[in-house]
Amino acid sequence: MEHLLSPTSLAVLRRPRPYPAVSVLTPTHRREPEKTQDAVRLRNAVAEAKKRLESDPAVTRERRADVVRQLDRALTEVDLTFAEDGLAIFAAPGEHQVWSLSRPVPERVVLSDTFLTRNLVSAQAAERPFWVLSVSADRVTLWSGAAGHVTEERTGGFPLIRRLVENFDAERRLQIGDNPSAFRAQDTRQFLREADGALGALLRRHPRPLYVTGQPAALSALDEVGSAARGATHVPRGGLAHGTPEAVWRAVGPVHEARLRHEAEAVARALETARGRKEFAAGVDEVWQSAREGRVRLLAVEENYRATMRTDAGSHLVPAESGAPGAREDIVDEIVEQCLETGAAVHFVPDGTLGEEQGIAGVLRY
After folding, report:
1. Three-state SS for 283?
2. Omega before 18 cis (within 30°)?
3. How far apart are CA 350 and CA 264, in angstroms?
4. Could you report the per-residue pLDDT of 178-221, keeping only the tens digit for each?
5. DSSP strands (E only) in the chain
6. Is 187 left (phi over 0), alpha (psi -120 to 50) or beta?
7. Which residues, in sequence order, are CB contacts of 25 under 8 Å at separation 6+?
8. Torsion angle of alpha carbons 241, 242, 243, 248, nearest 10°?
């Protein structure tokens, strides 16, 4: 299952496909007892997709058989043991993908000539992912972080491991990773240059906030030999290149959470300033209208805010019951995707931050 949504992978997903491009979305759960029904719900959603393919006169027999095979292959790749809050299966002639989402999604089957990506985009924005690079003289480890945890990410050449010479003192071999003098050696600095190059390539493909951990000597050496990590937040803690995810989170988590609090405070100030200048929108209908016009410069959404709406005769959004005709159960995700596409900064903030703004608000360009 895929988790890492990059600008490149999103562009590939949004590329038009030969009809039908099938999107199957279903909520999943991390814990019992709700988790027990996830497999049944997923099989039912895929069965509904096959039924829709069977009844669609625009789908030829050959393409129907192809897409059904892709759906079946996608099902075999799903591992609900590690389910998050939602799942998306995309299938089209000759291809399929499975994505795990950290944000709930409505149950939905869509046949179109493009895949339904808004829920992936919104989940990525809400998750606020970040990178952690843990540096020592003999190993550089990459961690992917989000939502209170980190996991080791084996991509882009990471981890980088420096092979020590055979006659190297055994005790020194254990100590070299965090020995300050090790970072003055030319072979160590060359090793860090290689790490800097790999990091730069990674950040170009998957831009995220970056934290770098290591002894102060390691952090200084990395900045001296390259440029990719110079804008990163330093966490002067050694030993984490060989550490556990739990140890990395204990070191980085407080720094990251402080950063999020600072960002939430900055968003609140920006909204208050915009209100005084009449460059402010609040509530799902007003923000939706502004997003469609490309007027939103900054969007703030409370982390667990959800709304089910429908469009009335006057082209405004009004509350609707889930499952009702015309109901748009992921309208918040629609707004997030639209704002990102028009260059807005999107911030998810703790519940209650927006107060009377009904869970969603924006700073307008004009």
Report:
1. coil
2. no
3. 8
4. 565 678 889 999 999 999 999 999 999 889 999 999 999 999 99
5. 21-27, 86-92, 95-101, 108-112, 130-135, 139-146, 149-152, 160-161, 210-213, 233-235, 280-282, 296-302, 309-311, 317-319, 345-349, 360-364
6. alpha
7. 45, 86, 87, 88, 89, 105, 106, 107, 108, 109, 110, 116, 119
8. 10
The closest of 120, 118, 129, 16 to 337, measured between CA atoms, is 118
Q: Which two tokens stand for residue 274?
A: 């915009």
Tell the burial category of 132 from Cβ atoms under 10 Å away from its Cβ (0-12, 13-18, 19+): buried
**pLDDT at 336 exceeding the cut of 60:** yes
227-230, Cβ contacts within 8 angstroms, sequence gap of 24 or more:
227/196, 227/200, 228/196, 228/197, 228/199, 228/200, 228/203, 229/133, 229/196, 229/199
Distance CA 233, CA 241 (A): 16
Which phi and psi (to 5°) does residue 249 adopt? -65, -35
Cα 324–327–329 angle (5° rounding)? 115
* pTM higher than 0.85: no
Q: Which residues contact 264 (CB under 8 A, 6 or more apart)?
A: 347, 349, 350, 353
Note whether 320 and 309 are within 8 A (CB): yes
Residues in the chain, total: 366
Quick one: tokens of 292?
A: 């469609």
Check if the beta carbon of residue 291 is closer than 8 Å to that of residue 335: yes
